[in-house]
Amino acid sequence: MGRFAFKIDKLMQALEQQGIVYLLDRRQQWSDKLNKKVQAITLSESVPTDEYNKDNPKPKNTDKSRVKVAVFTTFSEVEVIKFLAAKYRQVTRNGRKIRNTC
Question: How far apart are CA 84 and CA 101, in angstroms?
């Protein structure tokens, strides 16, 4: 866990309160460019299976109610914070949830 893990967790909790569930995976990979181990961070969205099967040409046959879909992969925690903050700004206005008027 890096020094930005607390901020990432808080942004994920705030988005979860708005109804958007994200999952964070950290994996070590070997980098030939840097010649050392690096940590890859993958941000995945938890989507209802019905919604996933409706939107994608390759439906998943599973008995689970939700499916994990990879959204964003990076090596930087700062990039994860920027992505989550931008998503939070999309679903809220000044900290309040935007109502659907349609």
Answer: 24
Cα-based distances in Å from 70 to 29, 46, 99: 17, 9, 27
44-55 pLDDT, tens per residue? 998 888 888 887
Q: Which residues contact 100 (CB under 8 A, 6 or more apart)?
A: none
pTM of the model: 0.78
**CA–CA distance, 51 with 95 (Å, rounded to integer):** 27
Do residues 73 and 41 make contact, with C-beta atoms less than 8 angstroms apart?
yes
In sequence order, what are the residues at sequence separation of 6 or more whose Cβ sits closer than 8 angstroms to the Cβ of residue 23? 43, 44, 45, 46, 68
Q: What's the rounded Cα separation, in Å, for the pair 21 and 42?
A: 14
d(C-alpha 35, C-alpha 81), whole Å? 26
Is residue 100's pLDDT more than 50?
A: yes
Two tokens, residue 11? 């942004």
Helix (H, G, I), strand (E, B) or coil at 69: strand
